[in-house]
């Protein structure tokens, strides 16, 4: 069941987004000019008893949609490349192509670089503020110090992929978001967030043990030469 926002929770949502909430996460009418492909790619959908709203039209265009792109690489198929600086995630298909997702990036998403593996995944995960959050703003995060159950309002969204390195949790997450206006941007909180429809798509094709490479800013700039023209949405 969806729990109503309490006053502290409403403040947490505002803090996590670092934006004024101008649009609800409900199914908004699609605007003229949005293609049928985009409407079909990001629709209202049922998942594990939850109704995920369609992504509102104002946050959709042919650049942000998930799509096949040219990506020259020598990685093992199935590897995930996260580029926090271009705000993209690439799922390697073969030596010349990848499936590209647009991501939103929080401060934590820019604080880690290097290799890890997906240790496990969770559907509709719970979320608990970090000790740093609790110490920095106990009034804001204290009411949910014990954790927040999964659901439509949870900051981790419909899926979370948990990145480990050397057997230890890096606290780095690739996850969904109920805040579609944050996808494609950089905010103050969180790691790597995707549209709900995109994180469900990514989770379906990602196995535990998948290799993840998170690029540094310098690596991002160097890696740009490997990326070619946009391909087809999928």
TrEMBL record:
Listed pathway(s): Cell wall biogenesis; peptidoglycan biosynthesis
Gene Ontology MF annotations: glycosyltransferase activity; peptidoglycan L,D-transpeptidase activity
Signal peptide (residue range): 1-23
Superkingdom, taxonomy of origin: Bacteria
This protein's UniProt keywords: Cell shape, Cell wall biogenesis/degradation, Glycosyltransferase, Hydrolase, Peptidoglycan synthesis, Signal, Transferase
Family matches, as PROSITE patterns: LD_TPASE (PS52029), PROKAR_LIPOPROTEIN (PS51257)
Biological process (GO), any one: peptidoglycan-protein cross-linking
Domain (L,D-TPase catalytic) ranges: 78-215
Keyword Hydrolase in annotation: yes
Gene3D superfamilies recorded: L,D-transpeptidase catalytic domain-like (2.40.440.10)
Pfam families found in the cross-reference section: YkuD
Classification via InterPro entries: LD-transpeptidase (IPR050979), LD_TPept_cat_dom (IPR005490), Transpep_catalytic_dom (IPR038063)
One cellular component term from this protein's GO annotations in UniProt: extracellular region
Enzyme active site: 175, 191
Protein family membership: Belongs to the YkuD family.
Protein name: L,D-transpeptidase
């Amino acid at each position: 069941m969806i729990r109503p926002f309490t006053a502290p929770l409403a403040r947490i949502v505002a803090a996590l987004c670092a934006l004024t909430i101008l649009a609800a996460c409900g199914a908004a009418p699609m605007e003229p000019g949005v293609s049928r492909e985009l409407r079909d790619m990001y629709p209202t959908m049922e998942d594990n008893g939850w109704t995920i709203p369609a992504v509102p039209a104002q946050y959709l265009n042919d650049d942000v949609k998930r799509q096949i792109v040219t990506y020259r690489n020598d990685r093992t198929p199935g590897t995930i490349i996260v580029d926090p600086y271009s705000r993209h995630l690439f799922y390697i298909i073969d030596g010349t192509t990848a499936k590209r997702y647009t991501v939103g990036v929080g401060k934590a998403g820019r604080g880690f670089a290097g290799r890890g593996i997906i240790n496990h995944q969770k559907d509709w995960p719970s979320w608990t503020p970090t000790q740093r959050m609790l110490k920095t703003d106990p009034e804001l995060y204290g009411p949910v110090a014990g954790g927040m159950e999964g659901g439509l309002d949870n900051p981790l969204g419909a899926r979370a992929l948990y990145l480990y390195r050397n057997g230890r949790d890096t606290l780095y997450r690739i996850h969904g978001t109920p805040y579609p206006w944050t996808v494609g941007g950089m905010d103050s909180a969180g790691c790597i967030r995707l549209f709900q429809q995109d994180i469900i798509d990514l989770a379906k094709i990602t196995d535990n043990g998948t290799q993840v490479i998170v690029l540094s800013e310098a690596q991002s700039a160097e890696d740009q030469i490997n990326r070619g023209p946009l391909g087809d949405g999928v």
